[in-house]
Specification:
Elements lengths: L1 E4 L40 E4 L23 H10 L4 E6 L2 H9 L5 E3 L1 H9 L9 H12 L6 E4 L7 H13 L4 E4 L19 H18 L4 E6 L1 H4 L2 H13 L4 E4 L5 H8 L8 E3 L12 H7 L3 E4 L2 H18 L12 H8 L1 H11 L19 H4 L4 H9 L11 H5 L17 E7 L5 E8 L3 H7 L8 H8 L6 E7 L5 E6 L1
Parallel strand pairs: 3-4, 3-10, 4-5, 5-6, 6-7, 7-8, 9-10
Antiparallel strand pairs: 1-2, 11-12, 11-14, 13-14
Helix pairs in contact: 2-4, 4-5, 5-6
Keywords: Lyase
Protein name: 2,3-dimethylmalate lyase
GO molecular function: lyase activity
Length: about 500
């Protein structure tokens, strides 16, 4: 399949220092799109080919870029913008959604202020979320993936001086690009009512401030200049502003809420050397939804899909809650298996890496302690019996034996275990069940670990465990040593195995 793209989509002066791929050379990777197999279009514009084999992905990347391509997120993004093709970017709202975007094979993604405000605050995108919250969320997102992220910088959170601080903060947070708009404060989603914009002069000065902040930081973060003046004023005003913002140093231009395909074409004819961004607001925005091929033909370079991930997440959670309320659990087809969830979150990778560092003297979770007074996940820090059984079933999970220095001291010079023959070679099993019936702790420790056992279960303080062990020393098999409820109502059982 072939699509034709305007030549200016990959000839921007700002990217002149980047290696340009040759469409006829082996440097050009195949790009992908599923829904449009077998279509061919060509005209006087430059042509690039696509084949279909990976769902939802459309991009063309160079393969011989060398170390430069990964030297910074911004360089990776600039290289992507300089390559042929139209590039699709879903909008993530947290670290998990960003990981899913990367796993799906996308080469970059956006963050969405709409989605972050919804997921982090449970509030509408009406200027309520702050710069600090957006930067913090951004650090979590960029730290979770290796693909470049274009961050939603709203209106820079103030005047041009605030814009400089915002840009520098986004650079430190690891963003490859930042979108800055010309709305007044408080700002809001561009497809909602009541949009207002700052003056032309202030809009231009904000982009100049962003460029200065980039220079002062020694960064090459991509600056995406957005104007909301189409809905706030007129199409003519938005076209004038995009020209001025390009002259001020913007790397990518974006008019939000264009109302027709004709308006989109008029926009793409402005400052033809500067890449254009489209916003396909799913579910009923003001801009018509065009296919990637249509957008490429109009002249767009990058496309954002801002609501897909947050939207389907909301609907999936609603359906799951409805099922639970009706006494059911969500169907297996509506959610991944537990093993799939663990794989997505990186449990298996963690276990493999953990094995590299495991030793017989590695501190265990036993030494972190248990308190029936504070039984939150952060304070208990232990696995449930079910989790232990699942881990024991995995061939990749390391088995770490906890051995205290006292046990080492009792090894004899000939390698025999000396006093640890008999009762001391056996193990104590400590099991704690909450008054709600849920298991809080189920661990096995060396029977010689008596001094540390009260650090694990303070409720055992004052009980002579050694005397109980001495009484059971000659008994074969397992024996229950203790079974009682502590002051918080938790049931504590100790077994000799």
């Amino acid at each position: 399949m072939s699509i034709s793209l305007p030549s200016y989509c990959h000839s921007r002066d700002a990217f002149a220092n980047l290696q340009q791929p040759n469409a006829n050379s082996s440097d050009l990777k195949t790009a992908y799109i599923q829904p449009y197999s077998g279509i061919t279009k060509s005209n006087h514009h430059s042509t690039i080919s696509f084949t279909t084999s990976y769902r939802g992905r459309i991009s063309a990347l160079t393969s011989g870029a060398g170390d430069d391509a990964v030297s910074s997120p911004a360089k990776s993004l600039r290289r992507l913008l300089a390559s042929p093709g139209i590039h699709l970017g879903p909008a993530c709202f947290d670290a998990l959604s960003a990981k899913l975007v990367e796993r799906a094979g996308f080469d970059f993604c956006f963050t969405t202020g709409f989605g972050i405000s919804a997921a982090r605050l449970g509030l509408p995108d009406t200027g309520l979320i702050s710069y600090g919250e957006m930067v913090d969320q951004g650090q979590q997102i960029t730290g979770a993936v290796s693909i470049p992220i274009i961050g939603d910088g709203d209106n820079g959170y103030g005047n041009p001086m605030n814009v400089k601080r915002t840009v520098k903060g986004y650079i430190r947070a690891g963003f490859a690009g930042i979108i800055l708009e010309d709305q007044v404060t408080p700002k809001a989603c561009g497809h909602t009512r009541g949009r207002k914009v700052v003056s032309r002069e202030e809009a231009i000065m904000k982009i100049r401030a962003a460029v200065d902040a980039r220079k002062e930081s020694g960064s090459d973060i991509v600056i995406v200049a957005r104007t909301d003046s189409r809905q706030a004023v007129s199409l003519e005003e938005s076209l004038w502003r995009t020209r001025a913002l390009a002259d001020a140093g913007a790397d990518v231009l974006f008019i939000d809420a264009l109302a027709s395909k004709e308006e989109m074409k008029a926009f793409c004819e402005v400052s033809p050397l500067v890449p254009k961004m489209a916003n396909m607001l799913e579910g009923g925005g003001k801009t018509p939804i065009l296919s990637p091929l249509e957008l490429a033909d109009v002249g767009y370079k990058v496309v954002a899909y801002p609501l897909s991930l947050i939207g389907v997440s909301i609907r999936a959670m609603q359906d799951a809650l409805l099922a639970i309320k009706g006494g059911r659990i969500p169907s297996s087809g509506s959610m991944p298996s537990f093993e799939e969830i663990k794989e997505i979150l990186g449990f298996n990778i963690y276990y493999e890496e953990e094995m590299r560092y495991s030793t017989k003297t590695s501190p265990s979770r036993l030494e972190r302690g248990y308190s029936s007074i504070n039984n939150s996940p952060d304070s208990i820090q232990h696995s449930s019996q079910n989790d232990l059984e699942i881990r024991n079933q995995s061939a990749q999970d390391p088995v770490v034996e906890v051995v205290t220095p006292e046990i080492y001291d009792n090894y004899s010079t000939d390698g025999s275990r000396g006093p640890y023959l008999g009762i001391w070679s056996r193990k104590l099993r400590v099991r704690i069940t909450g008054r709600d019936g849920f298991e809080k702790l189920d661990v096995r420790i060396p029977a010689g670990f008596l001094e540390g056992i009260t650090n694990i279960v303070p409720a055992l303080g004052g009980i002579n465990i050694k005397e109980l062990l001495d009484d059971a020393a000659l008994e074969e098999g397992g024996k229950q040593l203790l079974d009682f409820n502590d002051t918080m109502g938790d049931r504590i059982q100790v077994f000799l195995e």
